[in-house]
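Hi everyone,

Forwarding the result from last night's run.
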Amino acid sequence: MQYFQTNTSIEKFDENILAKFKKLFLDYRYLKLFYQMIDKTRNHEICLLICDNFEKILMSNRSAFTLNEFESIDKKIIKLRLHCLDKTDRWNKYIEYFEYVFNNKNYYSTYSNESDVSRFGKFYIHTRKSEHHIHFLYEGSYRYEVIERKIARSLKTDKLGNLRHHPQSELTDEEINHRYNEVLKWSKILDF
């Protein structure tokens, strides 16, 4: 996976690609539509490869983004990769990547300082003025715990049918095409 590699010789991308890239990640409507396309067509395997390309674009063009844009996009790529690892039932890779991000990315979300700090556990970073800074992965910690339970159960039994997601291979080409076109129709109705 790309997150373990360094980006030393990646070419710069043209402004048109960067504009589309920013639009995808900074306009929630487009990102939501992208998620729908991936989920409806169950194309999570390809999306994992796309996440590598998204990381390349972001890292090799760092100066084209403000600090807030860079952080926001990086967090969204991380969440997209976690989503696809979950949907492809790569539980150990999910846990490994989650821990890698937790230990190497200090992005945070803010919560009111009236919130009980103990509820955040290891995700608590510090308190500043009127807010707690909580590692942004806290929002996905429930899914992390679910996946840990799936791993534990898989070590005890071979019967995992109801724990696994349905892969794209269970869809016919016609079903994939139909699902893809449904999302496109919906996007045209919303005037994207």
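The mean pLDDT is 82.

Cheers,
N.
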